[in-house]
Amino acid sequence: MEHAMEAPFSVQRIDHVVFRVCDLRRSIAFYGAVLGCEVVRQRGDLGLVHLRAGASMIDLVSVDGPLGARGGEAPGQGARNVDHLCLRIEPFDETGIVAHLHRDGLAPLGAAEVNFGAEGDGPSLYFTDPDGNVIELKGPAEAAA
């Protein structure tokens, strides 16, 4: 995986982490009461809740929802709990990112799409690390129209 070319972007910070949870209400209450996180957006159609965690986000997905079900069984000994790690990058150049991934023998899981993150709606691209962990590269939020 070593190559002479540098990445066509730089990592700015962790944008968000996504946890799969068995009881969405219980988890929202926990992150609110224990960590002071506040709900900023909910996507009932996906079983997804976005919580503000300082400059970043903690997203919770119900294992019963469309996103959470992709991770297999409910979190426990034999099932994964973390859905993916999102890194905020600059700049977001889909063509350059895809070429960079290909040089390392990797491929995106699909085309870039607009998703909600710590800064708002912006472009993101997903791929997996060698162990199958999903990584999301997220660009800056789109300018408000």
TrEMBL record:
Pfam families: Glyoxalase
This protein's name: Lactoylglutathione lyase
InterPro entries: Glyas_Bleomycin-R_OHBP_Dase, Glyas_Fos-R_dOase_dom, GlyoxalaseI/FosfomycinResist, VOC_core
Annotated Gene3D superfamilies: 2,3-Dihydroxybiphenyl 1,2-Dioxygenase, domain 1
Species this protein is from: Stenotrophomonas nitritireducens
This protein's UniProt keywords: Lyase
Domain VOC: 13-140
GO molecular function annotations of the record: lyase activity
